[in-house]
Design a protein that fits this description.
globular; 15% strand; 272 residues; 12 helices
């Protein structure tokens, strides 16, 4: 069974917590995977992540309990084929506007006759040809999440969700706010109202729905609105917050850094 689908099915009323992986780094995704996140997006759309590095990241996250979701850079059949052959099980498709685009996304993940995915005998996804009847079982083991990022896409939500093979809907608040003329205002009341309405409509038809929030407070709001899986921030966002907080805590108003010595008793145990 698809790992992400299994995660959602086992969650019950609990909304699995994930994060975004923007660093394109195998070592970082492995560390993040041990932090307690239940799922994580390995982003190929807005990062320099290439196919070979993706393989290394999938290998690294395989050492953790975090379920990887790969966001492909576009709804492109060739890219999808290569990402699946690299070993991805669940794909997130950006900027899906209507049911036809959702059908194209699903078809790219399926072998014939259900789709158009090309066949390769020696791929990482089939454990290099050692999985019995891989081509017969692969279609049902691939997960498809489609991302809605405009009011037009949200208006088509039910038609998109009805496409066979779509496992979940994902709302992208950043692009959605921009498409609404509210660039950067992700928590504007109009954006939050549309986000809540999308969650309500998904739940009414039994479709899992996810999103991402920048802070714990926003994630709590999304969960209260009915989102069934939610990500918080990203690996780089969390890193920068921690780094900036440390610098701020150790910097005086005039820009000089505080000097702490072991003799002064200011160092605490716990390592780096």
């Amino acid at each position: 069974m698809n790992p992400f689908r299994q995660l959602l099915n086992a969650a019950g009323s609990h909304a699995p917590l994930g994060t975004w992986v923007m660093s394109a780094s195998p070592i970082v995704v492995e560390a993040i995977g041990h932090a307690g996140f239940e799922w994580g997006v390995l982003d190929m759309e807005h990062t320099p992540l290439d196919l070979m590095t993706l393989v290394h990241m999938l290998q690294a996250v395989g050492n953790t309990k975090m379920v990887p979701v790969v966001r492909v850079p576009w709804n492109d059949t060739v890219t999808v084929k290569r990402v699946l052959d690299a070993g991805a099980h669940t794909l997130l498709f950006p900027f899906v506007q209507n049911a036809d685009e959702a059908r194209r996304a699903v078809a790219a993940t399926r072998y014939p006759p259900e789709g158009v995915r090309g066949m390769a005998g020696m791929s990482r996804s089939s454990k290099f040809g050692t999985v019995p009847d891989y081509f017969k079982a692969a279609n049902k083991n691939v997960g498809v999440i489609v991302q809605l990022e405009t009011p037009e896409a949200v208006a088509n939500l039910e038609a998109i969700a009805a496409v066979p093979g779509v496992d979940a809907i994902f709302l992208g608040p950043a692009d959605l706010s921009g498409a609404m003329g509210l660039v950067g205002q992700l928590t504007h009341p109009a954006v939050m109202t549309l986000m809540a309405d999308a969650a309500r409509r998904c739940r009414a038809i039994g479709m899992p729905v996810g999103t991402v929030g920048g802070t714990p407070e926003v994630v709590v709001q999304y969960r209260a609105a009915g989102y069934t899986f939610v990500a918080i921030a990203s690996d780089l966002g969390l890193l920068m917050r921690g780094a900036q907080a440390a610098v701020k805590a150790l910097t005086t108003p005039d820009g000089e850094t505080h000097v702490h010595t072991l003799a002064g008793g200011t160092q605490t145990p716990g390592g780096y």
